[in-house]
Task: inverse folding
């Protein structure tokens, strides 16, 4: 029986299971839609645009999408987890706070995403990444995914699995 490793959990899953199909679909999306690592290029262009007076801003942080989290669909637990993990802000005094106030606290205290790698992607994948809140750049020169994790293959992040699950 064929097995593959499922990410981000790392569990081995058997062929013929939904988890196996999802893992295979995510790998196929990556193989087809992630074109190349353009980290040096994007960083060089962003720095060049910031340091010169060309008027071009295609790659500066002002044109990155989803640089801040959007808590609109989050419940109290998700807001609490974000504030605790990213800002160390959670206090028990906030337990009686309404959901909208939690979301506002996230918005008020959100930090910009730290992009660690830039990957050139297809327009389709850029749109999918945008829809799940991933950092992207889309301009007349192409589309890029601003990956906020590093040190392992992008297939291990769970991002492509999240997209594959939409079509399962």
Result:
């Amino acid at each position: 029986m064929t097995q593959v490793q499922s990410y981000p959990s790392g569990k081995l899953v058997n062929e013929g299971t939904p988890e196996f199909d999802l893992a295979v679909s995510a790998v196929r999306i990556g193989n087809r839609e992630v074109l190349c690592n353009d980290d040096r290029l994007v960083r060089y262009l962003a720095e060049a645009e910031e340091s010169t007076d060309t008027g071009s801003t295609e790659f500066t942080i002002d044109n990155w999408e989803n640089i801040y989290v959007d808590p609109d669909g989050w419940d109290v637990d998700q807001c609490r987890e974000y504030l605790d993990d990213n800002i160390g802000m959670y206090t028990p005094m906030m337990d009686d706070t309404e959901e909208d106030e939690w979301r506002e606290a996230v918005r008020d205290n959100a930090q910009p995403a730290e992009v660690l790698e830039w990957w050139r992607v297809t327009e389709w994948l850029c749109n999918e990444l945008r829809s799940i809140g991933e950092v992207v750049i889309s301009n007349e020169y192409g589309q890029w995914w601003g990956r906020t994790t590093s040190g392992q293959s992008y297939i291990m992040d769970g991002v492509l699995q999240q997209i594959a699950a939409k079509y399962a």
